[in-house]
Amino acid sequence: MSDPAKRDERDGPRVVPDGGASGDELTNVAIACQGGGSHTAFTAGVLQHLLEVWDDDEYELVGISGTSGGAYNALAAWYGIVTGDHEKAIDTLDAIWDDLATDGWADRVMNQWATGMSRLESSGLPIPSVSPYQIPGPEVGKERITETLERHIDFESIPNFCGRESPELVVGTVDVNGGHFETFTNEDVTPEAVLASAAVPNLFEAVEINGHYHWDGLFSQNPPINALMSVPPERKPDELWIVQINPQEFEGEPDTLDVIADRRNELSGNISLNQELTFIERVNDWIDDGYLPESEFSHTEIHRIEMGERFHCSTKVDRDREFLDELMELGHERAAQFLDGK
């Protein structure tokens, strides 16, 4: 990785694609990171490449959001940027995914078992279902995630770096009791909020926050978009970059149980995203047609950085180190293609 230029820790980051021209006005950019378990190692690679070419001449990052594994990436990138520089953000992403990868023979055996059971379940074989409340494994997993995050993120210091000069940080969950989407923003992003965003109901116990139980953000805003748009006018994004894990399109007809399970998983992860993007596009049309004043409403261009490859849904629980490295490298490649095409 190339060494990025240093910057003042409280300045908003800006990205310049290779060959881009500087201008007097910065383009506000928000990045939204879709959830998808281990597949979000791809997002870590995307963010790392963007940070490698980060510059102050063209774009300003005004917000970053994430759901589930995407929340890990959004938090790691945001924290590295506001507490140091681009290199620190890149290193933090590396460190978190290095800690989440399998380590030791016992961990590798457990990972193979979990991935294998997921594949068997998606194939339609009758697999005994066990509540995460009946076995100790899920709590051990939550403890490992918490320890990993707290090893690299000083959550108590987060409020000190929140403000008008820092990007918005948004984590998405769903409130099980209230039955609605809930986002945690800036100083409200705690270890519990990030855990809740990744608490898949059949794998982990719900996480209690403020008297309500919360589940995985895959059931909610995946990733959160609205909170990135609900900011002061001068901080609203001119461009929204979506790091999309789940394929948008599918060729042909899903006709086997495992392919059906795969496609259902992809669609469920894209539904809320497409709904929010449709509303933004509608507002853009109203602005273009003159129904909304441009002095009060801003046009937001939408761009997607898509994985572009389809992996079996069982691999969303696969923490094999080589697989995660493959996904991160793919993220670097897709980010480079995205910037080249802008």
UniProtKB/TrEMBL annotation:
Presence of the UniProt keyword RNA-binding in the record: no
Residue ranges, compositional bias (Basic and acidic residues): 1-13
Pfam families: Patatin
Full protein name: NTE family protein
PNPLA domain location: 31-229
Keywords, ordered alphabetically: Lipid metabolism
InterPro entries: Acyl_Trfase/lysoPLipase, PNPLA_dom
Taxonomic lineage: Archaea, Methanobacteriati, Methanobacteriota, Stenosarchaea group, Halobacteria
GO terms, biological process: lipid metabolic process
Region (Disordered): 1-23
